[in-house]
Amino acid sequence: MAGEILDNQGRGEASWGLPSIHPEGRKYGLIAAAIALVPLLLGWQFIGWPLLLLSLGVFAFFRDPERVVPQDDKSIVAPADGLVTLIQTLEPPAEMLGSDGSGVPGLAPGPVTRVSIFMSVFDVHINRAPIAGTVQRVVYIPGKFVNADLDKASEENERQLVLIERNDGLMIAFTQIAGLVARRIVPFIKPGDTVAKGQRIGLIRFGSRVDVYLPAGTQPKVLLGQRVIAGETILAEIGATALLEGIAQ
């Protein structure tokens, strides 16, 4: 199905299949499986079988399912699978503001809406581009590994900031944030790369968070507490500011 055009009129074909395992995770799954085989060969079933199940969990963590990405110009898609845990109005990170000395402009100062998506160890951890455009900045910042669900994680944790600019000049910044268990942010992109909306741009190993800074004058189309799917869920529509309410049930 990869690359196939599908629509809301029934065009295309869809079928269920097992998701592929991203190459970044295959080595970890194989290592875990090899470790599990040692006690099994020694007859220590009570140790070997739980370790073998753990190796299956490692493979599942690095699953990389295909996604059907909305192609309209107004939509901004979620860059991560997970739970919307914070929606706040604040200033973007200083690293994304103004010129960085390379002649490439950054975001304009002023408060914008930030949507935070928390990824548990059970979520898909492949991150995707929220819009199509050119990667203007990739800034890595070392830091702590406090719970990624906490607000202060945006300022204290190890993180990587990415700025993407569309052909019309619209810019979106987002931050990949490491967490308690996550210990490495793996980028698939670099400054100057051209990315499609929904394209895989990186992953964070073992539980983490992604913050998205929406353009000024744009409010999210997701609700606090909602689960989103990377590359598929429409996080916001450019220029839309309507209040949306939901009821947890």
Automatic annotation (TrEMBL):
Cellular localisation: Cell membrane
EC number: 4.1.1.65
Any one GO molecular function term: phosphatidylserine decarboxylase activity
Site residues by UniProt (Cleavage (non-hydrolytic)): G207, S208
Membrane topology: Peripheral membrane protein
Note describing how the cofactor binds: Binds 1 pyruvoyl group covalently per subunit.
Active-site residues per Swiss-Prot or TrEMBL entry: S208
Domain of life of the organism encoding this protein: Bacteria
PTM (free text): Is synthesized initially as an inactive proenzyme. Formation of the active enzyme involves a self-maturation process in which the active site pyruvoyl group is generated from an internal serine residue via an autocatalytic post-translational modification. Two non-identical subunits are generated from the proenzyme in this reaction, and the pyruvate is formed at the N-terminus of the alpha chain, which is derived from the carboxyl end of the proenzyme.
Transmembrane segments: 28-61
Pyruvic acid (Ser) found at: S208
Recorded metabolic or biological pathway in which this protein acts: Phospholipid metabolism; phosphatidylethanolamine biosynthesis; phosphatidylethanolamine from CDP-diacylglycerol: step 2/2
CC terms in the record's Gene Ontology section: plasma membrane
UniProt key word Transferase: no
One BP annotation, GO: phosphatidylethanolamine biosynthetic process
Reaction(s) catalysed by this chain's protein: a 1,2-diacyl-sn-glycero-3-phospho-L-serine + H(+) = a 1,2-diacyl-sn-glycero-3-phosphoethanolamine + CO2
Keywords: Cell membrane, Decarboxylase, Lipid biosynthesis, Lipid metabolism, Lyase, Membrane, Phospholipid biosynthesis, Phospholipid metabolism, Pyruvate, Transmembrane, Transmembrane helix, Zymogen
Entry cofactors: pyruvate
Enzyme class: lyase
UniProt entry tagged with the keyword Acyltransferase: no
PANTHER family associated with the record: ARCHAETIDYLSERINE DECARBOXYLASE PROENZYME-RELATED (PTHR35809:SF1)
Protein family per UniProt: Belongs to the phosphatidylserine decarboxylase family. PSD-A subfamily.
Subunit architecture: Heterodimer of a large membrane-associated beta subunit and a small pyruvoyl-containing alpha subunit.
Function noted in UniProt: Catalyzes the formation of phosphatidylethanolamine (PtdEtn) from phosphatidylserine (PtdSer).
Name assigned to this protein: Phosphatidylserine decarboxylase proenzyme
Organism ancestry: Bacteria, Pseudomonadati, Pseudomonadota, Alphaproteobacteria, Sphingomonadales
